[in-house]
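Example for tutorial group B:
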């Protein structure tokens, strides 16, 4: 099964030094490396943008940009945005707030029957309301 990886997971592996990560953070980078090796890691355009935003050094930006270009990007369509809005509305009706990008990732993964690999504690809350599958590292 394909796994849509959220920004914080990519960021741990690609934007931070391994020596700066605590044990739990290092534990999260290993399953990402396995997903990449297996060809199951998926990257969404908004996540790509978040990862590249805020990098001050042009050389570092270019290295990360070039690395991320290896990953095919699922084209987003009107239906993805509509489903994201519907998911947002369903969660809000149950008292669960979230960010638009989170619901876009939920919609993309849900419609394609992918799992979501996220460190954000909001995703398990969304999963109680909308139909998404979460990736749990072994």
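The residue assignment follows.
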């Amino acid at each position: 099964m394909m796994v849509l990886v959220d920004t914080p997971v990519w960021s741990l592996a690609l934007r931070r030094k391994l020596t700066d990560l605590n044990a739990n953070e290092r534990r999260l980078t290993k399953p990402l490396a396995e997903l990449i090796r297996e060809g199951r890691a998926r990257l969404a355009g908004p996540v790509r943008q978040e990862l590249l935003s805020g990098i001050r050094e042009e050389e570092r930006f270019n290295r990360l940009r070039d690395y991320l270009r290896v990953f095919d990007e699922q084209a987003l369509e009107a239906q993805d945005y509509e489903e994201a809005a519907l998911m947002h509305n369903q969660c809000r009706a149950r008292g669960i707030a979230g960010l638009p990008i989170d619901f876009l990732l939920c919609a993309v993964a849900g419609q394609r029957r992918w799992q979501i690999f996220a460190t954000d504690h909001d995703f398990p809350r969304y999963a109680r309301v909308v139909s998404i599958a979460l990736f749990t590292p072994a």
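The mean pLDDT is 94. Compare this with the pattern of hydrophobic and polar residues in the output above.
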